[in-house]
């Protein structure tokens, strides 16, 4: 059906003088055109759905000394974000003589398990995650850890971003030196 | 037994109909997809599991890789009001003609004291050469910008404004830049804003995956 009539090609063999013009079929093989059409469709479908951007909610606490939240030592986990996607954490409060035991380093791959373990072992009312970002940490780190909180279904109000103390900054830089992170 | 003659049929099928369908689908997809506004600043946002789509009309603060900050006022109805507000409050001494020219520019990427000269410059600077809005803790002009934005939207639905405030940062932007932006929001008593991220599926087996939230707000 959809085929070019090629038989007319041999028309000249009949020699000169034969002027019987054969009618050319107007049908064209559309298969390559269909191929092209579907190729373009798949291309457009794939390229458009990929670039869907979403919006994540951010709730900041009011900077008010009166509303300072007191956190129980037993329920607190402090997560510190360092440079090169490094994560450090400790439970409760840092005590001078036990720092090396308390202060541990981890990565973003393992932090989720630590968050979940802490969540399961602590009564929900006491649970508090304190997130502190270093000057060298990136925007991605800050968003990733907040995302981690929503992945672990930590209710809002049980995690907060807080400024880093000088002691912690020193601890991070010491650990980075020891681990050889530039 | 008499032989049953099976007539030989050509295997060629008429492709015209299929071709029609293919191009109909193609034109449908091209027309149905919304065109993304041209991005002058290339930024790769981080990923998050949030599934809410980012609004089209927005007041967008962009943080580039090298720590520069840009402001894009997407709501055309209020753009002129915001710009004239900052003109009067910060004493930029812009004429009406200069203001009109400013409204047409897609985004703000200069310190306030350079805006007059940038508007009168004969050649427009490419976006990657612009200095960005200063956001240091000593001179955080983003505070003034957000103040102008809030005063332009005063009396309107504040929840709508909160939904429009977007921060879009590059993955490798350093944290202090983002902190300065948060500070600017806080100084203007805005505690809720949104961050533009790339959608990502919820990891299987995680708590959020097992118990997805019922209400989406």
What can you see in these coordinates?
- The complex is a heterodimer of chains A (182) and B (217).
- Chain A has 5 helices and 6 strands, in the order αβββαβαβαβα.
- Chain A is of the alpha/beta class and 182 residues long.
- Chain A has a domain at 72-179: Nucleotidyltransferase, domain 5 (2-Layer Sandwich).
- Chain A has a 5-stranded mixed beta sheet with strand order 4-3-2-5-6, sandwiched between helices.
- In chain A, helix 3 packs parallel to helix 4.
- The radius of gyration of chain A is 34 Å and the shape is elongated.
- Chain B has 217 residues and is of the alpha/beta class.
- Chain B has helices spanning 16-32, 76-89, 96-104, 115-120, 141-152, 158-164, 175-187, 207-210; strands at residues 47-48, 59-63, 69-73, 165-169, 192-199.
- The termini of chain B are far apart.
- Chain B has 8 helices and 5 strands; from the N terminus they run αβββαααααβαβα.
- Chain B has a domain at 47-121 and 128-199.
- A 5-stranded mixed beta sheet of chain B has the order 1-5-4-2-3.
- The mean pLDDT of chain B is 78.
- Helices cover 38% and strands 12% of the residues of chain B.
- Chains A and B meet through helix 1, strand 1 and helix 4 of A and helix 1, strand 1, strand 4, helix 7 and strand 5 of B.
- Strand 1 (53-59) of chain A pairs antiparallel with strand 5 (192-199) of chain B.
Question: Any descriptors?
Answer:
heterodimer; A: 182 residues; alpha/beta; Nucleotidyltransferase, domain 5; 5-stranded mixed sheet; 5 helices; B: 217 residues; 12% strand; elongated
């Amino acid at each position: 059906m959809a085929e070019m009539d090629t038989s007319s090609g041999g028309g000249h063999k009949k020699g000169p003088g034969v002027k019987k013009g054969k009618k050319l079929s107007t049908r064209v093989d559309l298969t390559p055109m269909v191929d092209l059409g579907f190729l373009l469709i798949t291309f457009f479908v794939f390229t458009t759905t990929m670039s869907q951007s979403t919006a994540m909610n951010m709730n900041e606490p009011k900077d008010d000394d009166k509303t300072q939240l007191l956190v129980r030592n037993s329920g607190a986990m402090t997560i510190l974000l360092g440079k090169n996607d490094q994560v450090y954490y400790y439970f409760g409060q840092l005590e001078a003589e036990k720092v090396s035991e308390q202060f541990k380093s981890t990565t973003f791959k393992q932090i989720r398990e630590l968050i979940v373990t802490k969540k399961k072992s602590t009564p929900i009312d006491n649970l508090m995650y304190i997130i502190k970002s270093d000057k060298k940490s990136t925007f991605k780190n800050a968003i990733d850890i907040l995302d981690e909180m929503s992945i672990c279904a930590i209710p809002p109000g049980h995690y907060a971003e807080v400024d880093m103390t000088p002691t912690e900054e020193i601890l991070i830089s010491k650990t980075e030196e020891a681990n050889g992170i530039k | 037994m008499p032989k049953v003659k099976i007539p030989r049929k050509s295997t060629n099928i008429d492709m015209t109909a299929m071709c029609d369908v293919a191009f109909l689908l193609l034109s449908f997809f091209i027309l149905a997809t919304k065109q993304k506004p041209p991005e002058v600043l290339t930024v790769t946002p981080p990923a998050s599991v949030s599934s809410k789509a980012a609004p089209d009309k927005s007041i967008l603060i962009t943080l580039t890789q090298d720590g520069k900050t840009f402001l894009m006022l997407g709501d055309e109805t209020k753009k002129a009001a915001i710009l004239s507000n900052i003109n009067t409050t910060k004493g930029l001494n812009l004429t009406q003609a200069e203001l009109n020219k400013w409204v047409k520019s897609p985004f703000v990427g200069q310190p306030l004291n350079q805006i007059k000269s940038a508007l009168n410059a004969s050649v427009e600077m490419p976006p990657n050469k612009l200095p960005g809005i200063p956001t240091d803790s000593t001179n955080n002009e983003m505070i003034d910008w957000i103040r102008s934005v809030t005063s332009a939207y005063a009396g309107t639905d504040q929840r709508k404004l909160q939904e429009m405030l977007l921060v879009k940062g590059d993955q490798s932007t350093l944290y202090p830049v983002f902190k300065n932006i948060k500070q600017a929001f806080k100084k203007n008593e805005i505690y809720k804003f949104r961050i533009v991220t790339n959608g990502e599926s919820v990891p299987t087996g995680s708590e959020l995956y097992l118990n997805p939230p019922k209400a989406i707000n």
